[in-house]
Amino acid sequence: xxxxxxxxxxxxxxxxxxxxxxxxxxxxxxxxxxxxxxxxxxxxxxxxxxxxxxxxxxxxxxxxxxxxxxxxxxxxxxxxxxxxxxxxxxxxxxxxxxxxxxxxxxxxxxxxxxxxxxx
Length: 119
Description:
Mean pLDDT: 93
Strand content: 35-45%
Largest sheet: 6 strands, antiparallel
CATH architecture: 4-Layer Sandwich
Strand order of the largest sheet: 2-3-4-5-1-6
CATH superfamily: S-adenosylmethionine decarboxylase
Low-confidence stretches: none
Order of helices and strands: EHEEEEHE
Number of domains: 1
CATH class: Alpha Beta
């Protein structure tokens, strides 16, 4: 039986937060988070794209990276001060350490976190 965990984070911060608007910072966040958790990113799978948000005049960023253990993705809506982060891993990881890393990158944010264990 495959064991693992999926961590879903809804992150709320100030509108137009620079970190939610900068593709290079999202790349840094994704790569740094994985390395500090001891996960194995497949580097040529890192993709970060900027896209317009319909009917808002804003834009978002989606970043994802495939891991040998599963994946990490991040979606931002800067005009709403919102970010959705999902980490799935079949390797045992510390959920608390992951939350600490997210809070360190977005220190003034509010996090709502849900953890789903795989059977």
